[in-house]
Specification:
about 45% helix; alpha/beta; 14 strands; 2 domains; two-stranded antiparallel sheet; N-(1-d-carboxylethyl)-l-norvaline Dehydrogenase, domain 2; binds nicotinamide-adenine-dinucleotide
C-alpha cells in the first residue's frame, strides 16, 4: 500500500512580524549598550468551552507570570449566547467565571472574553485553537486570508478527521486553511480536574518550522506549563494527534471488559494491545511518527489509561455489553446529546483499514467495530487476540 503523505510544513519566516512588536527604550546612560529589544507575544484563544476555558486560565496565568515574554492580556473568542438573560462575554468579563462551561472556577482578570472572532485574533502572534472540531471549518473560513503567515498556532482539539480515503490531522487542517504552522496539545487531561489545579501532564507537539523563528519550543512550554500542569514538548504532531483519536477505540474495548465483569487483568491486557495497535497504525500511515509518543507520553499511554478508567467511551462500552441495545440509542440516552467519539472513530478506522486490506492486522480495532456494528460476541475477544500473537519458534 502507498503510505499517506507526511505532514508538509511550509517554511515560514517570522522576522517581518516581529519588527512590529519590537519596543525600545533609550538607555539613560550614553555609554551603556541599549537593552535587547523586548518581544512580547500576544496570545489569543479561539474557543471557551470546558477545555477552552481551562486552557485559557492556564495561558493567562502564564502570560501574567512572564511579562517580559508575553503581552499580559489574553483575548478569548466566545461563541456569544445569553445565560439567564445576560451575554456570556459580559458575565466572563465582570464575574471572571465562565458560568456555563466551567462553573465554579475563577478565571484570571487578564483574560478578556471577545464575541467577535476577527477582533480576537487581531495582532496575535500565537493562536490557541480549542473548539469542538465540528465548528472548526466555519471558524477557519472566517479567518482564511486574514492571518499573517508568521503567526504560530497550537491546536488543543483532540483527534483527526478520518475517511476511507485518508486521514486529516486537525493541526494540519488548520495549517493548510490558514497558511500558518500549527502544533498540537493533547494529554490525559480532564478539563474540570485541570481547572481545579489537580496535577496532570500533557504533551505538546511543536516543531519550529523556520530557523529564523523566535517562537521556540521553550516559548510554547512557558505558555502552557504550570506547577500543576506539566508539559513535555516533542516534535511529533501526527503522533500526538493520532493518540487523541485512537485511544477512544481502546476505551470502548475496556468498557466491554468491565461490562463482562472481567476485572483489572483483562483491562491491562486490552490497554497493552490497544497501545500496540495505536503505535502500529501511526507508524504504518505516518512513518514520521515516533513510537515513543504512544508509549512514553501523556498523550499516549497516560490518556489511554485515563480513558479506559472512565469517561464517555468507556461508559458506552459497558452499557453496550450489559444492555445489548443499539449503540446510537444508548449514546442518545446516556450521553444526552454529547458524542462518544470512539464509536465513529472505530467505524472510520475500520473502513480505512478495510479499503487497504489491512483490517486483520489490527485485530482489537477490528473486533471493537464488529462488536458494535456486526454482532460479534465480546466474549470472543481472547480468541481473536490469541490468533495474532507471534507463534514461538
Ligand atoms: N472537556 C475536556 O475535558 C477536554 C479535554 C481535553 C481535550 N478536549 C478537546 O477540547 C476541544 C474543545 O472541547 P470543550 O470541552 O472546550 O468543548 P465544550 O463541549 O465544553 O464546549 C462547547 C463550546 O462550543 C461552543 N459552541 C456552541 N455552539 C457553537 C457554534 N455553533 N459555533 C461555534 N462554537 C459553538 C460553545 O460556546 C462552547 O464554548 C474538543 O476537541 C475536545 O475533544 C476536551
Amino acid at each position: 500500500m502507498r503510505p499517506l503523505p507526511a505532514i508538509r510544513l511550509s517554511a515560514l519566516s517570522r522576522l517581518s512580524s516581529l519588527k512590529s512588536h519590537l519596543s525600545y527604550s533609550p538607555s539613560s546612560s550614553a555609554s551603556a549598550p541599549p537593552p535587547p529589544p523586548a518581544m512580547k507575544y500576544r496570545v489569543s484563544i479561539i474557543g471557551s468551552g470546558n477545555w477552552g476555558s481551562a486552557i485559557a486560565k492556564i495561558v493567562s496565568e502564564n502570560t501574567a507570570a512572564n511579562p517580559g515574554l508575553f503581552d499580559e492580556s489574553v483575548r478569548m473568542w466566545v461563541y456569544e449566547e445569553l445565560v439567564a438573560g445576560q451575554k456570556l462575554t459580559e458575565i466572563i468579563n465582570t464575574k471572571h467565571e465562565n458560568v456555563k462551561y466551567l462553573p465554579g472556577i475563577a478565571l484570571p482578570t487578564n483574560l478578556v472574553a471577545v464575541p467577535d472572532l476577527l477582533d480576537t485574533v487581531a495582532g496575535a502572534d500565537i493562536l490557541v485553537f480549542n473548539v469542538p472540531h465540528q465548528f472548526l471549518p466555519r471558524l477557519c473560513g472566517q479567518l482564511k486570508g486574514k492571518i499573517p503567515s508568521t503567526v504560530r498556532a497550537i491546536s488543543c482539539i483532540k483527534g483527526v478527521e478520518l475517511s476511507p480515503d485518508g486521514i486529516t490531522i486537525i493541526a494540519k487542517y488548520i495549517s493548510d486553511e490558514l497558511g500558518i504552522y500549527c502544533g498540537a496539545l493533547s494529554g490525559a487531561n480532564l478539563a474540570p480536574e485541570v481547572a481545579q489545579e489537580k496535577f496532570s501532564e500533557t504533551t505538546i507537539a511543536y516543531k519550529v518550522p523556520d530557523p529564523a523563528d523566535t517562537i521556540s519550543q521553550k516559548t510554547m512550554k512557558t505558555l502552557f506549563h504550570r506547577p500543576y500542569f506539566h508539559v513535555n514538548v516533542v516534535e511529533d504532531v501526527a503522533g500526538v494527534s493520532l493518540c487523541g483519536a485512537l485511544k477512544n477505540i481502546v476505551a470502548l474495548a475496556s468498557g466491554f471488559v468491565d461490562g463482562m465483569g472481567w476485572g483489572d487483568n483483562a483491562k491491562a491486557a486490552i490497554i497493552r494491545r490497544g497501545l500496540l495497535e495505536m503505535t502500529k497504525f501511526g507508524r504504518e500511515f505516518f512513518p514520521e511518527c515516533e513510537a515513543a509518543t504512544f508509549t512514553e507520553e501523556s498523550c499516549g499511554v497516560a490518556d489511554v489509561i485515563t480513558s479506559c478508567a472512565g469517561g464517555r467511551n468507556h461508559k458506552l462500552g459497558v452499557a453496550l455489553i450489559t444492555s445489548k441495545r443499539p449503540i446510537f440509542e444508548l449514546e442518545e440516552d446516556l450521553l444526552k446529546g454529547q458524542k462518544a467519539q470512539g464509536v465513529t472513530t472505530a467505524q472510520e478506522v475500520h473502513e480505512f483499514l478495510e479499503k487497504r486490506g489491512m483490517a486483520q492486522d489490527f485485530p482489537l480495532f477490528t473486533a471493537v467495530n464488529d462488536i458494535i456494528f456486526n454482532g460479534l460476541d465480546s466474549y470472543a475477544l481472547p480468541q481473536i487476540l490469541e490468533k495474532v500473537e507471534k507463534p514461538l519458534e
